[in-house]
Automatic annotation (TrEMBL):
It comes from Hyunsoonleella rubra. Residues 644-912 form the PD-(D/E)XK endonuclease-like domain. SUPFAM superfamilies: P-loop containing nucleoside triphosphate hydrolases (SSF52540), Restriction endonuclease-like (SSF52980). This is PD-(D/E)XK nuclease family protein. Gene3D superfamilies: 3.90.320.10.
């Protein structure tokens, strides 16, 4: 395949032009690398390489101005703004930057198109004046300021550009307009210098002026890369600019228009694939490349062009392992590397000037992959120990002194992370650079393993040094929030460049990097509306109609630029694969691009269009099964010897796998900080407070006065147990204060119920509080007895009947402590778990000979106190009679089910099988 660059060089050779004497000017710097290679291919002898420049480099050379970064320009513009604005009316830098960026873009666009700035901004000011009824006598203060702003814009521009030119610097538009000013002097200085422009399409007025002047002075040649199809079809956007150039440029009235080719109409294999989501496209690109290799197709002349550059990492992860040489022209965004999240977290932490830090922010920073190793001293992981301390003590807000006490031996790194940021912006920036050097010192201990991480640190060090330089030169950054915005601005423009051989192997690039280049096989991704083309977007102070009137580009021209790039990729290619996302997205709908529809409607090529539905393997949701090996049986016997509690047995009923994890493997849920008091903590506090209040009255009948005497102690006991359970968590405000008050109310209401019971003539004698029980139970076909352990909240004598009482801070209803079928008590957790627990307590109390039958057992629900003591009851049928008396027969029936349950747990032939737990 003959490329456009090759055709240009052969044409120049045909006219005996010395390539060494030429200055080649191309749309991008990257194209220059391919140009050099083609020169070496067509030259038969050694020559000096010609001068090769991108259009930006050439224009900058003409202007004698240095191009400043967007951030530097914003600082310089702010200087001009402050110079022309009264101090009391001046906005801070952060507010200014929001509209300053937009205005800079407008300055840039207007200058590139050589439109007098005063003319257009005075026109805009007049429009705004009309909009706000300038003849109206009574204008609000807001309207006055608004109109004054529009009147000042040209003043801002004049002051700003004058300062820049004095410093021999500029933005792109200013550089272009200055280049036009200097063009005549350049031509006089270089009367014989020959220029070759190739591969251009859309040109701004400055570029058009420069190129046409050089052409008219016989100091240049220009080669266009356009196809006959695009030129002849007057509504085809790919040829929009070329048709205008050919029609309007005086030079082409006497000189040929080079070139209009006929490559697009030649036979091509074009395949279009609709694929769901970005990852689907990335994976399919990998499949296409693999198929090409399987067909012995070399990837040497193949390009993957990413319409959405966010696909870069997914595509790299999807490449076949057989892909050899690879060149990536896009660069890896610095914002995507792990170190970014660390500084993002630090900036967010220090935006507020509070002296204490939220525990999640602290843990997030200390757990970061670049920070955690710094807390490792003498083979001790102080990071883990400190985080456990925070969690165990419910420390929600921490100051620097607490952090130093918790994370011992790490004062220096803690100071860098958490203190001194609010002193000044310079102090904050120094903290960042010192932190980078601190991390580097750790990584230097094993350089070979940390080369990539050290590269990350180098680039961030460079970024923060740039921020220090800007702040030192301008001092406009007044707070961490503004610094954070600038940091993100710089970060978004920085990339880590991949190292590779630019002329070998598979090429992965963005759409703009493909300019002037031709490939035999092209894979284009993300060909969706809103991406290719980008669609309507207006980020400008200049209205659409004003842009039209002044020949400034609108979204239509920008769409035409991408139309040209898209068709140029296809123009000389033989194999074309076009991918688009079929799935609707929040911001970008799943609509294929108009480019695809246009390709199909042209009728020039036979197109294979497929919707790809990924083959997702059906994964059966099979339950987890843990086989009982000899080792596992040994562990089960150990648990059995220590004792099964009622809660562990109900855990098995609910889901055997939970029992296996918690009791056999000893895996507990991670103890995180309780920001709001957890339900189990509330329950423990209420239980323990009642235990303290009732302990002095064991073996005594309760009186109205004895219960009333408990009330003054409620607050002290509840507070004590909250502090004991909730550690250093704050219960003085917010939801925790509400929970604290609920705990007091629960105890208070319970005592009121007790008083009313006594007033009603009921005799209540406290027998035991928090009664510990441990018994052995014989299991048929089992070698040794198994222990049962448990603690009964309260045992009392109520009008001569012994009651076993279990407190519940949650809501319990009477039907939850009633059973019909004994067999269901060990299988239906949802219905009968509470019945199972209270019967287990009754069984243990009877077996340990602490009570005599008959008795009653049940639950007191603090959320359902009005229902009183909810007694266990055996029902003959669903609507049959209830028997709430627990007799020996009751416990024998229960014992059969209890033995059966424990036999199942200890049976080596019955595996632990996961149950589906319904909410």
């Amino acid at each position: 395949m003959a490329s456009f660059i090759t055709d240009v060089l052969l044409d120049l050779k045909k006219h005996n032009t010395s390539l060494s004497a030429l200055t080649f000017i191309l749309p991008s710097r990257r194209a220059g690398i391919f140009l050099k290679r083609q020169i070496s291919n067509i030259e038969n002898e050694t020559i000096f390489a010609p001068e090769i420049l991108s259009i930006e480099e050439f224009v900058q050379e003409l202007s004698h101005l240095k191009l400043l970064t967007n951030t530097e320009l914003l600082f310089e513009f702010y200087n001009s703004y402050l110079g022309l604005t009264k101090k009391e009316h001046a906005e801070d830098f952060q507010s200014f930057s929001k509209w300053g960026q937009i205005l800079l873009q407008d300055f840039n666009e207007i200058d590139r198109y050589l439109i007098p700035q005063e003319q257009i901004f005075n026109y805009l000011s007049a429009i705004q004046d009309l909009k706000h009824w300038s003849l109206e006598e009574q204008q609000t203060e807001f309207v006055k300021k608004y109109l004054a702003f529009w009147n000042k814009i040209f003043g801002y521009y004049a002051h700003f550009t004058e300062n820049l030119i004095d410093k021999k610097a500029g933005y792109q538009g200013l550089i272009y307009s200055e280049a036009v000013e200097n063009l005549e002097a350049y031509i006089e200085t270089n009367p014989k210098k020959q220029h070759v422009f190739l591969g251009f399409n859309a040109l701004n007025t400055s570029e058009e002026t420069i190129i046409q002047e050089l052409l008219q002075s016989d100091l240049a040649k220009i080669y266009w890369d356009i196809d006959d199809v695009f030129m002849e079809r007057r509504f085809h956007d790919a040829g929009l600019f070329m048709r205008q150039h050919k029609r309007k440029w005086t030079y082409f009235k006497q000189n040929p228009f080079k070139w209009i080719s006929d490559n697009y109409s030649k036979e091509k294999t074009i395949s279009i694939f609709g694929i769901p989501k970005h990852i689907g496209q990335a994976k399919y690109i990998g499949s296409i490349l693999k198929d090409l290799q399987n067909k012995n197709h070399t990837l040497e002349n193949t390009a993957v062009v990413l319409g959405d550059e966010n696909l870069l990492i997914p595509v790299l992860n999807s490449l076949p392992t057989t892909v050899g040489a690879l060149n990536i022209t896009m660069g890896f965004p610095l914002k995507s590397i792990p170190l970014t999240s660390l500084f993002e977290a630090l900036f967010n932490l220090h935006k507020t000037t509070s002296k204490s830090f939220y525990f999640k922010d602290v843990i997030n920073i200390i757990s970061h992959q670049f920070i955690r190793p710094l807390f490792h001293h003498e083979n001790i992981d102080y990071a883990s120990k400190g985080i456990d301390t925070i969690n165990n003590n419910n420390l929600i807000y921490l100051n620097i002194e607490q952090l130093k006490a918790i994370f011992t031996g790490s004062a220096e790194i803690l100071d860098l992370l958490f203190s001194g940021w609010s002193i000044s912006i310079n102090a904050a920036l120094r903290k960042c650079t010192k932190l980078i050097l601190f991390i580097k010192g750790h990584l230097d201990k094993d350089k070979a393993s940390n080369l990539l991480a050290l590269e990350y640190l180098f680039r961030f060090n460079k970024l923060f040094n740039e921020l220090i330089r800007l702040n030192h030169g301008h001092e406009h950054i007044k707070d961490i929030s503004t610094l954070h915005d600038l940091y993100k601005e710089l970060l978004n423009s920085e990339t880590l460049d991949f190292q590779g051989e630019p002329l070998q192997g598979l090429q992965i690039m963005g759409m703009l990097e493909s300019r002037v280049l031709d490939f035999e096989t092209v894979i284009i991704s993300s060909v969706n509306e809103g991406i290719l083309p980008a669609g309507k977007s207006q980020n400008s102070f200049i209205p659409f109609d004003v842009k039209l009137e002044n020949n400034l580009p609108t979204y239509k021209e920008k769409d035409a630029v991408y139309t040209y790039h898209f068709y140029h990729l296809i123009q000389r290619a033989k194999n074309v694969f076009i991918l688009y996302n079929t799935e609707a997205d929040v911001l970008i709908g799943g609509e294929k691009s108009r480019f695809i529809t246009q390709l199909e409607l042209e009728g020039i090529h036979k197109i294979n269009h497929q919707i790809i539905v990924p083959k997702v393997p059906v994964v059966e949701n099979s339950p987890i099964v843990v086989k009982k090996t000899d080792r596992l049986m040994q562990d089960i016997f150990e648990v059995a010897q220590k004792g099964f509690s009622p809660s562990s047995l109900t855990s098995y009923i609910r889901n055997p796998i939970d029992f296996y994890y918690q009791k056999i493997l000893k895996i507990r849920e991670y103890d995180d900080v309780e920001e709001t008091v957890a339900a189990n903590t509330l329950g423990t506090v209420v239980h323990n407070a009642l235990e303290d209040l009732y302990n002095p009255y064991i073996d005594q009948f309760l009186t109205e006065d004895s219960v009333k005497n408990m009330k003054p102690k409620i607050e002290e006991r509840v507070t004590f147990h909250f502090k004991n359970e909730y550690k250093e968590g704050d219960i003085s405000k917010g939801k925790n204060l509400i929970v604290f008050e609920i705990a007091k109310r629960y105890v208070h209401n319970f005592l009121n119920v007790e008083i009313n019971d006594i007033k009603a003539g009921n005799a209540i004698k406290i027998l035991q509080i928090e009664a510990e029980n441990e018994i052995e139970i014989e299991i048929p076909t089992f070698e040794r007895p198994v222990k049962l352990t448990g603690k009964v909240d309260r045992v009392d004598l109520y009008n001569g009947t012994v009651r076993i009482i279990d407190y519940k801070t949650g809501s319990v209803q009477q039907n939850q402590v009633e059973i019909v079928d004994w067999e269901a008590i060990t299988t239906d957790y949802k219905k009968y778990s509470k019945s199972f627990q209270i019967l287990t307590y009754a069984y243990m109390m009877f077996a340990s000979k602490k009570i005599e039958l008959p008795i009653e057992a049940g639950i007191i629900s603090f959320k359902n106190l009005n229902s009183g003591f909810l007694k266990f009851a055996k029902k003959e049928s669903a609507r049959g009679k209830k028997d709430s008396s627990i007799t020996e027969d009751t416990l024998k029936s229960f014992e059969i089910e209890l033995q059966r349950l424990i036999s199942e747990i200890c049976n080596p032939d019955i595996n632990f099988i996961e149950k589906e737990v319904k909410p």
